[in-house]
Amino acid sequence: MTGIIIRSVGGIYTVEASDGVYQCKARGIFRKKNISPVCGDRAEFSLETDGTGVIERIEDRRSLLIRPPLANLDALVFVSSTCEPRPNLLLLDKFIAVARFKNIEPVIVFTKVDRSSPDEYSAIYRSSGFEVYEIDNTTAQGVEELKERLAGKLSAFTGNTGVGKSSLINCIFPDLGLETAHISKKLGRGRHTTRTVELYKLPNGGYVADTPGFSSFDTNRYDIIRKEELASCFEEFSPYIGKCRFQDCSHTRERDCAVIDALNKGLIPKSRYESYKAMYEQAEKLKEWEQGR
What we know:
By secondary structure, the protein is an alpha/beta fold. It has helices spanning 29-32, 89-101, 119-127, 143-150, 165-172, 219-222, 227-230, 258-264, 270-284; strands at 2-9, 12-17, 20-26, 42-47, 53-58, 64-65, 70-71, 75-81, 105-111, 131-134, 154-158, 183-184, 189-190, 198-201, 207-210. β1 (2-9) and β2 form a beta hairpin.
């Protein structure tokens, strides 16, 4: 039998197949091969006499995130609030770059638009070629458009704690009643309310995953992007790559750099370029042993 893993807790995997949902364990061979089944995996499993399942094989993965543990994502939905907390654009850009690096489509959502305008942030990312959705969680404005975008796809929702991620998922799935966080006025951030990864089935096909906050999406440890690979993760740079004076241009300081020229002409958003430059400088400091994946 074949199905998709929709939940993983304590070595028990919930697998949804065409004829029902099964609780499964994994064969010991996975531990020997240092493979851990994760949500999103397509798994072949057999049934024991007591009705429980045993995972025999994991199909080849299109993509894999280690933190949060998710496989075969079509889209990674980055949820950011317009206020309380305000967007951390460098952090957002880091995770967008990781999504592009892993060939996962980034989708950007700004919440709390009833309290502060998202126009400044939306303009940055739309001009860079990304899909941007503006959501009012109190009225569900903009939710239907997002649901249509995710139909038939395997997508994950992630975002800094307190941005309204669980509230957004509650708008899409009113019957779930996910716990939501209250924002600490002192710290300007909310409590973690999502502790595990779980897939939820969309009424019109596909799945979405609620995940822990950005602090658990550990790009520095598991998803190292080398400096030579970084520019290709910034989509708005693509028209200018290969047009610089120097073939090995880093796009940070060189003369006759086509990317810097585009920045000076207003063709590349300044905040996006500053994020690239900060990430490049960080990548330059990596030791050779740190670059092993």
